[in-house]
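Re: Re: ligand-bound prediction request (bumping)

Still looking for help on this. To restate: I need the protein modeled with 3-hydroxybutanoyl-coenzyme A bound, output as structure tokens. Inputs repeated here so nobody has to scroll up.
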Amino acid sequence: MKIERVCVVGGGTMGNGIAHVFAQKGYSVTLVEAKQELGDKALATIARNMDRQVAKGALTAADKDAALARLKTATTIAEAKGFEFAVEAVPERLDIKSAVFAELSKHGAPGAILATNTSSIPIGEIAKSAADPSRVIGMHFMNPVPVMKLVEIIRAKATSDATTEMTRALTESLGKIPAVANDFPGFVSNRVLMPMLNEAIECLREGVSTKEDIDTIMKLGMAHPMGPIQLADYIGLDVCLAIMEVLDKGFGGVKYKPSPLLREMVAAGKLGVKTGAGFYEYPKK
Ligand code: 3HC
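Reply:
Sorry for the wait, this slipped through. Here it is.
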């Protein structure tokens, strides 16, 4: 099956980045958001991020215009009817994702592959709502999507070899590098990353060091592009907490216990960059 038409469900941080890269690489994309204003907002973000690429010489103005022309928004999945590939990037709740997969199953072309960008919900659970679980797979993009090279591909028990191979080839066509994991809590990326961020937050809570010095130690000492406290703010502290809870529930034991300070920050509504404050302040520009 040749993949030309792609449906992206959800236009938030991850969804707009995913729609951006598919459109940039020549696919016709329908971006589905619950309300037209949200779709318009996602399109404006994509245009702004493409402008950054144009300013850096990574994209020509003509290619930007062509990419935006391949991108349309819709408020229902039915309007994207006939897509060969879908990526779901709606909020991290199984009930919401299940409803999306049931709907995607009705409107795809025969044989369409349904991917989820979930960062923590088991792919096998989401696949239960699809008409054919062998065509359901995890496609975990990293933030910021247009910049990060990795796509973690997650196979559930029912995912077929053909689905995996098509998703791998599609990932490469986006100029990204696929790496495959099985369907365990947190997969590989978040099972390794989140306990590190959580431990950095524990260092702060216990007074081992200041947030600035924790970040400097990991940035300059381990050549990470961002320090762990800064990265937690960037990902979203609510997202970090939700993933730690999935790891804690899945594996138990001390090493996956969410930091009490992380819980406090989330309870206080300080979620990081997206709310203007987390461990650091992010004044509106
Ligand atoms: N769209 C397009 N381009 C973007 C962009 C976006 N949203 N965000 C940044 N860029 C581009 C910039 O234009 C710039 O381009 P250039 O290299 O051609 O000059 C480049 O990316 C670097 O950006 P900046 O110069 O603004 O800033 P930095 O050099 O500080 O880089 C960063 C920013 C790329 C975010 C870098 O700090 C980084 O790599 N941080 C770590 C990010 C990370 O670890 N992501 C994974 C998070 S985990 C995850 O997503 C999984 C989830 O399940 C939790």
